[in-house]
Amino acid sequence: MPHVVVASDDCRPFTGGAASFDVEATTVGRMILELDARYPGLGEHIRRKMAVAIDGEIHQDADAAVLGPDSEVYLIPKIGGG
Q: Is the pTM of this model over 0.70?
């Protein structure tokens, strides 16, 4: 089961302070849906404000990225550029 770690305090108001979760998901999109079902509003926050790293690799447009049963997913704040 993929393990998700939130590497930022700005998600914790949604999760009651929890910073890591195990999820039943095979893609990042499904992972976000599951987290949003558990913690309403978190899914939209992840989509707008967070980048996704799977097993040490940051993914752009990560919804279709595949998660394996032992995947480790880090949610990190997006870095703005200009």
A: yes
Residue in the structure block whose two tokens are 């999760």:
15
Return the domain boundaries, the chain.
3-77
**Where does 3-77 sit in CATH, by number?**
3.10.20.30
CA distance 25 to 5: 14
6's tokens: 């939130």
Q: What contacts 48, CB < 8 A, 6 or more positions away?
A: none
Q: What is the pLDDT of residues 8-61, one digit of tens each?
A: 898 989 999 999 999 999 999 999 999 999 999 999 999 999 999 999 999 988
- Cα–Cα distance measured from residue 77 to residue 52, given in angstroms and rounded to the nearest whole number: 9
Q: How many residues does the chain have?
A: 82
